[in-house]
Amino acid sequence: MQTENLSTREKILQAATELIVDKGFKETTTKDIAASAGVSEMSVFRHFGSKKAILVAIMKQYSFEYPIENGLREQLIWDLEHDLLLLAEMQYHFNLRNEKAILIRFKESKNLLAFDIDVKRDPSLLKEFLVWYFDEMYAQGKILKADNEKLAIHFMSFNFGLFCNKMMDVYGPISAISKKEEIIFGAKCFARGIQP
Fold it and tell me: In terms of C-beta distances under 8 Å and separation of at least 24 residues, what long-range contacts does 16-19 make, across chains too?
């Protein structure tokens, strides 16, 4: 873990993230976090106050906001295959950047719910964006009439599945096909399936 240019807060968050992914929230102590971050346990409490606050900060630090409002709309050209490829690559790379936080979301779902951390907000925003996109494409006559919420959920699930396959690569890849090729093929197949 590289920490030389990080603030004390960042060191604590990085150490806590690694430990929670490896050991789980319950088994990770503030003493462990302090030792791994190379700071005193008092520094951990000074910056966060509690272990719960560290978990909340970890979930906030990893941006779960897909780059929908940061230029993504402007990149759409209303060509189904192009746009689905753009959206699939965005979701896949977003998931890769947030891999540890996603693992924590799975591993610590009960704690996140108990701490009232809203883990549905950001995927819901992506779903709403995709429904909007499919509605617009239908209005332009570029896709078949369908339940656009179901299309959005299936598109998100396909892309999340690619990310899960990538995480399984630690055991060795299940295919010689590159993730880029899989994303392109998936976007083309999805587009083909909903075009008139």
Answer: 16/54, 16/55, 16/58, 17/58, 17/100, 17/101, 17/104, 18/100
Residue 49 and residue 17 share a domain: yes
Domain holding 47, by residue range, is 8-61
Question: Within 13 Å and on the Cβ side, how many CA atoms surround 169?
Answer: 14
Q: What is the pTM of this model?
A: 0.80
Positive or negative torsion for Cα 139, 141, 144, 149: negative
Q: Contact 69/51 with Cβ under 8 angstroms?
A: no
Cβ atoms of residues 114 and 52 within 8 Å: no
Q: Which residue has the higher pLDDT, 130 or 93?
A: 130
**Res 63: pLDDT:** 59
Cβ burial 101-115 (10 Å sphere, 16+ → b, else e): bbebbebbeebbeee
Axis-axis angle for helices 148-168, 179-194 (nearest 10): 160
Domain contains 2: no
Q: How far apart are CA 1 and CA 92, in angstroms?
A: 24
Query: Domains in the chain: how many in total?
Result: 2
Residue 72 above 90 pLDDT? no
